[in-house]
Amino acid sequence: MQTPLKLVRVWDLPVRVFHWSLVLLVLCSWVSAENGLLRVHLWSGLALLTLLVFRIIWGFVGSSTARFSQFVRSPRQALEYLRATKRGEGQLHAGHNPAGGWMVLALLTVLSLQAMTGLFSNDGIRFFGPLAARISAALSDRLTTLHGTIFNVILTFVWLHIVAVLYYRYVRAENLVAPMINGSKPDAMLPAGPPPKLVAVRWALLCLVFAVLLVWWILKP
Amino acid sequence: MSDAGVHAADLGRRRLSARRYISWVALLTVATVAAFAMLRPSLAHAIRETLGLERPPLQSPQSFYAARVAPIFDQHCRSCHGPGRQKAKLRLDSLGAALRGGKHGAVIAPGNPGGSGLVQRIALPAGSERLMPPSSLSPLAPDDVTVIKLWIAAGASGVQPLSAFSTAPKPVAQVTILAVDPKVLAAERAPVDGPLQALQRRFPYVIDYEARSSARLELNASRLGRSFGDREFAAFAPVVASIVRVDLSGTAVGEASTQALLAMTNLRTLRLVGVHAGPSLAAALASMRERGIRVYADTP
């Protein structure tokens, strides 16, 4: 008879909602751009930008597993972690591991760049990003090209992310997807010590309101 | 996923070796990249051409495509579907690229204009959201649409000669209207502006600029009749070098104005119908004709 495991909450609700909203919005932005639905693309991009602003704020004031200070390690530590993982000796982490932390940073960076360049982009015909009129047409064109190029980088990073998650699932038998849905990990998969400190959702809502206001302030005519 | 579904036995279970997993990922990555490439016709064609599996379409500079179709694409489509920008991954700046199509596949179906996405988009009614070129750009003329339809119907060839398209609408001559720089024009007019205004006050409706974009003058004193003679004509001496057209028909100018007329170094047209020309004026008119000035006078 198998022994049920004790589960410990590691991901707060805001991080999980952010993660899956980001997935949906990236997909929505992709599909809408490919099909010329540029109004949808615009709103999807603005929502994405707002979420990214929220996540960056939450990275400073959120739950312990959401904080940059908790999961951003030096590149050397990340490489050591990867080498140890290859040997099957990777340490346990409640939140992001050192390599995953860099993936989070990379994705946040490229997605932020993508959202920001989108604000200045144009399709040369009918659609102009909300800030495209504030720069020269030539610069807007260059940022539009960059917007398209960064998307390929995003696809590459997303692919790496998925490959890493599946690596954990099928090579290390560690399911990273389920905790990102239900928020919990078996305590056997956690390092020794106190459980992660979670921050109340109401503070996340406050951060989200601030992010919405900030984006609105940036875009206001 | 319920909490009860997680058991200790699940932990530590290894299903794949890291090496095997990486092999699968590498294989899947290559397949995915290849699938992406194949979904982008232009990229797929470029790869096939590079590998020598596909030849670029034959083209002739004397073809109907080069003479009639390519200029339409260049004028109306190239800004969005050219080297600088490829909306929908479509380029229309070369025959090969046009035949490859864009991210939604081929836009030209040789022999089938009705089934060609390109024709469907350019033939939409004005104001349609999907009309190409979009309403913000210069529209195609109906003859342009006809030319493209005929070309596709005949196989969208790069070598078929003009003679194969006898029913094609005749090409329309291109007229270019040069933009006027107000500062440059004002500088050109500056030397004559003052004298001109004085002359316009003295001889209303007799002299003015030949066009709003020109610094050259035209003088027409014919409506003043015999009240306009050599003395009046002499008053135009300050602007004489800027005058390009003169009509003194029916006026009283005569031999005494010969030198003033010869001083018009930029004159192109002179009308002296009904003016009696003595020997020196007649000789001057003859020399003007030799200089290429169009002279309309009673004297031969």
Description:
The complex is a heterodimer of chains A (221) and B (300). Helix content of chain A is 65%, strand content 3%. Chain A is mainly α and 221 residues long. Chain A has one domain (7-219): Transmembrane di-heme cytochromes, Chain C (Fumarate Reductase Cytochrome B subunit, Up-down Bundle). Chain A has a two-stranded antiparallel sheet. Chain B has 300 residues and is α/β, with parallel strands linked by helices. Chain B contains ten helices and five strands. A five-stranded mixed sheet of chain B has the order 1-2-3-4-5. In chain B, helix 3 crosses helix 6. Chain B is elongated and about 110 Å long. At the A-B interface, helix 6 and helix 7 of A face helix 1 of B.
Task: Give a nutshell description of this structure.
Chain A is built from 8 helices and 2 strands; from the N terminus they run βαααααααβα. Chain A is an all-alpha fold.
Enumerate the spans of chain A where pLDDT stays under 50 for 5 or more consecutive residues.
none
Task: Name the biggest interface.
Answer: A-B, 30 and 30 residues
**CATH homology superfamily of chain A:** Transmembrane di-heme cytochromes, Chain C
- Estimated helix fraction of chain B: 25-40%
Instruction: Please report the total strand number of chain B as a whole number.
Output: 5
Look at the structure and give the CATH class of chain A: Mainly Alpha
Query: CATH topology of chain A, which one?
Result: Fumarate Reductase Cytochrome B subunit
Shape of chain B: elongated
List the SSEs and their pairings.
The complex is a heterodimer of chains A (221) and B (300).
Chain A (H helix, E strand, L loop, with lengths): L6 E3 L3 H22 L3 H24 L6 H4 L3 H12 L11 H22 L17 H34 L6 H6 L1 E3 L14 H19 L2
Chain B lengths: L17 H22 L1 H10 L13 H13 L18 H6 L16 H6 L19 H12 L28 H21 L4 E3 L7 E4 L9 H5 L8 E5 L10 H5 L6 E4 L6 H12 L3 E4 L3
Parallel strand pairs in B: 2-3, 3-4, 4-5
Antiparallel strand pairs in B: 1-2
Helix pairs in contact in B: 3-6
